[in-house]
Amino acid sequence: MARVSGRARIGTQIAAVFLALLALGLAPPPAGAARAAPPALVGVAATGEHALSLDELRAMPWTTVTTRNMFNDDMVAYRGPLMRDVLARLGLGAADSVFLLAANDYSVEIPTKDFRDWDVIVAMEADGAPLSPRVTGPLWLIYPQSEHRELDGFVYAQRLIWQLVRIEAR
Fold first, then answer.
1. CB 57 within 8 A of CB 16
2. 3-state class of 162 per DSSP?
3. What angle do CA 152, 99, 94 make, to 5 degrees?
4. Are 67 and 145 a contacting pair, CB within 8 Å?
5. Residues 52-67 pLDDT 10s
6. Beta bridge mates, 129
7. Quick one: 134 exposed, middle or buried, by C-beta within 10 A (0-12, 13-18, 19+)?
8. Of 20, 22, 18, 17, which Cα lies nearest the Cα of 33?
9. Which of 3, 28, 61, 115 is the most buried (most CB within 10 A)?
10. Hey, what domains does the chain have and what are their CATH numbers?
11. 136 vs 119: CA distance, rounded Å
């Protein structure tokens, strides 16, 4: 009977663990394998959950909203897809209102009429730079407050939800 060295036994054990993880789908993908981008934004409707990655949001048509708000004294050029387009992509376009949730658990409910009446965007850039997840990004709901004085007040300021991660139809 052949004797197995300690190194060979450890190598066999590592290989067995790797194969077990691979079978469970927990092993890292092989080098060069394409990975699906993680969802940046999840939409929940009666038909189920739909998700969009940052890449999918970047691929949508963008609008620029140059405005100031209670968080910025200066005019800032925000860029990103229109919220009404994002809702349509998530299957939430017919909702009367939406419940929005941020990464820090801040939440707000907004009537979708806002998104039909004004060019509200899901901002991904401010003055040409990506929004930082450490501050307000990567997704910040921005209203064109400087263009429409009726949007300049607490009701709309509380709707400027940043670090947006989830939208639910109501």
1. no
2. strand
3. 95
4. yes
5. 999 999 999 999 999 9
6. 126
7. exposed
8. 22
9. 115
10. 39-169 (3.90.420.10)
11. 20
Is residue 46 within 8 A of residue 92, CB to CB? The reply is: no
In total, the chain counts a number of residues equal to 170
CA 3 → CA 9, 11, 15, 72, distances in Å? Answer: 10, 15, 19, 73
Q: In the prediction, which pLDDT does 7 show?
A: 57
| Residue 15: per-residue pLDDT | 54
**Could you identify the residue written with the tokens 């789908």?**
25
Lowest-pLDDT range, 3-7, 106-110, 150-154?
A: 3-7
The token duo for 164 is 């947006």
Distance, in Å, from the CA atom of 125 to the CA atom of 4, rounded to the nearest integer, reads 60
Prediction pTM value:
0.79
d(CA 94, CA 85): 12
Tokens 């997840």 sit at which residue?
133
How far is 12 from 16, CA to CA, in rounded Å?
Answer: 6
Q: Given the structure tokens 């940052």, which residue do they identify?
A: 54
